Every structure is written in C-alpha cells, then in structure tokens.
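haha ok so turns out i had the wrong file open the whole time. this is the CORRECT one, sorry everyone. sequence first:
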Amino acid sequence: MLYHFLYSLHDEFSVFNVFRYITFRIGIAMLTALAVCLFLGPWFIKALQRKHLGQTIRPDGPLSHLSKQGTPTMGGGLLLISFLVSTLLWADLTNSYVWIVLIVVSGYGLVGFVDDYLKIKRGNAAGLRGKTKLFWQILVALIVGLILLLFLDYPPTLSVPFFKQVQVNLGWYYLILAVLVIVGSSNAVNLTDGLDGLAIGPIVIASGTYLILTYVTGHVNFADYLNIPFVTGSGELAIICGGIAAAGLGFLWYNAYPANVFMGDIGSLALGGALGTMALISKHELLLILIGGVFVVEALSVITQVISFKLIKKRIFRMAPIHHHFELKGWAEPKIIVRFWIISIILAVIALGTLKLR
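then structure:
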C-alpha cells in the first residue's frame, strides 16, 4: 500500500522513483519485518502468557522436553504478522502471485491456528484429526493450482535442474504436483519444528535462497543468461521471501535455545506452504527438495519409521522425527540445532550452484 502511494509521487519528486526497483523494496521489506517482529515480540509473548496459551508436551516424547511444558506457543502468529505487514506495505499488490502466496499463508495459518487452539483447549497434543488437517491443506493447494492454470495462463511445466532446456509439460497433472509440493512442504516444516529454533533457521535460509531464485526468475535478462524459465511478475515474490527471512531472524531472537516462545502449527504450516508455493511459481519445484533438505529428511524419517514398524515391528530410529533420534543418542539440543542449520546452509549453496551447472 505504501509502495503504491510513494511511487505515485515519482513524477513530482524524482527521489521516489527508487521504489520502482524490487531490490530497494526487498531491503525495506526486510527491515520492516525485522523491526515489527522485534518490537512486537515482548508484547506478543506476554499476551500469550496472559491467555495461558502454553505448549502441551507429548508424554511419549523425550523426557527432557517435559520442562518445556507451558512455554507460550502459537508464536508463529508473530511471524505471520511481521512479514504480512511488510508485504502489504512494500509489495506490488496488483501482482497476482503475491495474492496467491497470501492465500496459502492465510489458509494454512488458519488450519494451524485451529490445530494449536484445540491442543491447548484439550490439554493434550491431539489437535485436529490428521485427515481433517490434510483435507483443508489439499483443498487450498488445489485452489492455488486451479488459479494458476485457469486464470493466470501459467505453463504447467516442470523444470529439471542441471538441464538447460528440459521442460516436462504435465498438463492437468500439474495439479497433483502443486498439491504434493505445497502440502508436502508444509507438513515437512511442521515435523521439523520440534526443538528450540530448529525449524526457523532452515526457514530463514530457504527463504533467502528463494529470494534469489524468484528474483532471477522474474528478471528476463538474468533468466536468459542462466537458462532458467522466465516467469513474468515472479520477481515480486522476492519481497515476500525477504520479509519471511527477516521476520524469521526476529523470531529467532525469542525462539533461540532456551526458547521464550514456540512457533506452533500456525507458523510452521503457513511458512512451509509459502515456501512450496514460491517453489512452484518460480519453476524451481525440484530444487526445493535440495534447499529444504533438512525438512525432507525429517519427513522421510517419520515415514520410514511408520512403515518399518507396521511391516516388521521394528523401529529404524530410536525416535522420529530424526532430531529426537539424535537427542536420545546423547547429543545436546543446541548441537543438533546448529548442525542442522549448517547442513541447510550447505544445501542452499549447492542449490544456487545448480543455476550455472546446466
């Protein structure tokens, strides 16, 4: 909103012409999101404490987590407010892709809010039924896929990393890809959110990576130089990516070990869905597997654990998701967190390197 107002003044005052540049608005959006998160953080946490919105710890989890019982949760709401404010202020609100991401964030955020609220109300770790949660996630993803294909003349193609001109036309099967990417990303991030700061670190890294990817995808010269698909208007998503990354850093101030507040499903589901949506729009869907490698491994550890136990009545890991496995092996919580962050940084660098390895 503020972008539209200030840029409208550029004919009278040339200094406002700077707002036409996405790079400039990315910087302002990041500063805005960070400032809002840091400023509202203490008030937001106290409000959660007053409302007695504390975390319920699963009795079958690591015993060391019992001390975290009652820590304010639903802190993801602070994250969402911070980057949504920066997006609404500095993004081009006539851009359809911006609203598509906001639809996913709002829809998944609402599902996460209900899930968190039910856990607190019931006093246990059982929130929404898994099938109910999955239904609403799939519905939102399908709506996004239909909007892309029916109203935005979006090419239903899948880009393959390392190959210059490989574009697989999926046709209407692109809807299946959209659901898999958005829903899968959302739930993978949700499973990773089990230690103080564990999920938000990779989210910041992945958002920063997609800031670069969405920007170059939306820039015709860069896209041509790098031999990647050019998607008109996708560069505007870099502002959202910057907002998420900066809000994530602000949230980490309060979520770092030992955490003063937890993200909750309201944050993890929404942010995971946002990452999946931006991967789709920027035509870097498969790179999300690499960029979000930590999330992928966390999700796979749960899947393989369940399959193994059902088939052969044995567990592969001491406990899933895999970060609990390392806890039970004796790793200190901060060590697990930082090492997962390091892995995320390495994977992000490799992913960006694929832009030239084509």
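The mean pLDDT is 90.
again sry for the mixup
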